[in-house]
Amino acid sequence: MTQDAGGCSRKRKRRNRWKPETASTELSTTTAPGVTNSTVKQPPSASTGFKSSPKPSSFLEKMKAKLSGGHFRMLNEKLYTCSGDEAFKYFKEDPSLFDMYHTGYQEQMSRWPEQPVNIIMKWLKDHKSSLIVADFGCGDARLAKGVKNKVFSLDLVSNDPSVIACDMSNTPLDSLSIDVSVFCLSLMGTNFPSFLQEAHRVLKPSGWLLIAEVKSRFNPNNGGADPDRFSQAVCDLGFTSVSKDFSNKMFILIYFRKKAKNNSSKEIKWPELKPCMYKRR
Ligand SMILES: C[S@@+](CC[C@H](N)C(=O)[O-])C[C@H]1O[C@@H](n2cnc3c(N)ncnc32)[C@H](O)[C@@H]1O
Q1: pLDDT digit string, tens, across residues 104-158
Q2: 104 within 8 A of 68, measured Cβ to Cβ
Q3: How far is the CA of 52 from the centre of ligand 1 (A)?
Q4: Whole-model pTM above 0.85?
Q5: Which of 13, 49, 172, 233 is deepest in the core (most CB within 10 A)?
Q6: What is the CATH topology of the domain spanning 1-12+55-281?
C-alpha cells in the first residue's frame, strides 16, 4: 500500500525479487505449530551471487503482509463509505477488526515524511496546557499521550481505558465544555457534517476546531472537494476561518474558531468528501 499526495494511492511498483546475497545468509524460519524455531545457514549461490528462490520465511512474511494489507484496505473502505453509526455497530461486533485496521494504518503512516498528529501536538504545546481538548477519531490516542492538556480521546473502539468508545456524531461530552476539537484524518464517515456539528456543540465560544485531512480529498482537479466550499460550509455551521496550510504534500490543515453566536439558519451546502482508498502494492 502506498499513498501519495495527488491521489491517495499510486500504482504498484515492480520490485526486484532477487536480492544480492552475502557470504553467509541467515534465514530465520517461520515456526509451524509444534516446530521449534530455528536459524538455518544457507550457502551462497556460487554462479550468480543471487538466490534463485525467495527465503521461505520471507515468503510467508510476504503472504501475511498481503493478507493484512487486504484486511486494512477493506476496513478503510468500510469506514469511508458508511455512516459513523454503522461503523460503530460494525466494530462493536468484532473489536479485533479495529486492531487490524490500525496495524495497516500505522504501516501506511510510517511512509509519510511528517505526520499531521505531530503538527497538532506542536500547536497544543505552543498554546496553554490548560486548554481542554477533544480528539475526534483519536486512533491510538497518541495526541493525549504527547501533551499535558486534558484530552478526551474518542474513537469507535476503546482498547485503552482513557479512550471513550462512541460514534463521534454522538459523544457523551457536555455541551460548551471543550476548548479545542481535533479531527486528524478522521472525517471518514459519509455523515462527516454531523461529526463537525457535534464538535460545534461541545466547544466553548471561541473554541478551536483543528482539521487535518488527506490532501487529495481536497483536490478539485482530481475529484476532490473544493477547499473553499468546505471552509464556507464549516463557517455556516458557526465557525470563523482562521488559517489554512496546504504546504504539506500529504495533508492539509484548516483551523477555525467557534463564533460566539451563530444567527445563521441557512441550509448548509456540504461538498462531498471523496474516500481515500489504498490500492494493492
Ligand atoms: C485515519 S485514523 C486517524 C487516527 C488519529 N487521529 C491519527 O491521526 O493518528 C481515523 C480514526 O477515526 C476513527 N473514526 C472514524 N469514524 C469514526 C466515528 N464515526 N466515530 C469515532 N471514531 C471514528 C477511526 O476508527 C480511526 O481510528
Answers
A1: 999 899 999 999 999 999 999 999 999 999 999 999 999 999 999 999 999 999 9
A2: yes
A3: 43
A4: no
A5: 233
A6: Rossmann fold (3.40.50)
